[in-house]
Please model this.
Amino acid sequence: MTYDLVVVGGGIVGLATTREFATRFPRLRIANVEKELRHGRHQTGHNSGVVHSGLYYAPGSRKARLCTDGRERLYAYCEATGIPFRRVGKLIVATVPSELDRLAGLYERGRANAVPGLELLDAAGIRAREPEVRGLRAIFSPSTGIVDFGAVAEAFANDARALGADLFVGREVRRLERRPDGIVIHTPLGEIVTRKVVTCGGLYADRLARMTGAPAAPKIVPFRGDYLLLRSDRRGLVQGNVYPVPDPAFPFLGVHFSPRIDGSVLLGPNAVLAFAREGYAFSRVNLRDAYDALGYPGFIALARKHWRSGAFELYRDIARRAFVRSLQRYVPALRYEDCLPGPSGVRAQALAADGSLVDDFVFEAGERTLHVRNAPSPAATSSLAIARAIADEAAQHFGLPVGESTAALGG
Model:
């Protein structure tokens, strides 16, 4: 099997990218390679389903630009294809005076990112929007929504097939071998030869990059988030998303209330180190993954700086009552018995060697390769815009003029 371009990774970003390449370069032979037997098994299939508005991210960053653009592209795509979605909105709630300055800064950041319709609410305004939510002040973001990203990813896959791309599943990439005329992708089911490779590996982004001689850092360190579920007869406690004011020093958004498109309501998640890159349960341990994380100087530096926060997250992961108390800050009417065990997800967090969190989306070009080294939330929201950005970069880096023959990839 010989191709002009292969995208490695069958999550939502990899599938959106495959679809974009097949759309933009119809004369190229394009394939997607996924290690699982079906698409979207990991970050795509384990997220909360929130369509983010774009107010969290540094103005001018890739995240800010691609989230605001991707949000509208995603809504338009879902409307055109009949995928259910709802703009339920989001409240970001300050519950103590020390959070008010950060809330005001977040509001200004959202305005700088041109997030539409933002409102600052006082305590009465909060109750008018969400009668059971309590806080001093809040930001209301009406463009935040919910969708089933697994359904979106499968639609991207169907589009890519219809455009002529080949999609392979059950083909874990064991090795990427450089040859003078291209790259050989070694999988358990045989070799795939391609002139160019784009990797969108999520939890394995760093390992795929290392296969082609790219630097080890940033390294992916997996963090598990465990959710609770709101009992079905108590789902009326919230109407839309309810979030805390984020701590800028910590990469996660804190425990929150997230309605889903199926009518359920997620509570959480916490954020604890996972001892496996696919560690969806506390008991799941992969020795290589654990050694990679615990022995990495970047993680050691991060742990030294944030050990108190990490210890509290671990305590809250074990003690459900502590988890519920954190949620009751925002919805005092929530009761312990309202909360049921829920799903888990693993976030691929890229860390630099000095322990700093890699906050923005990161693409890294090499000889015949383009690696997506960091694409955490809001990557699902941004997927169509990320795909366009990857295709733009690949077109420049690889020299892919639209409509040219496959010989254009020979260099």
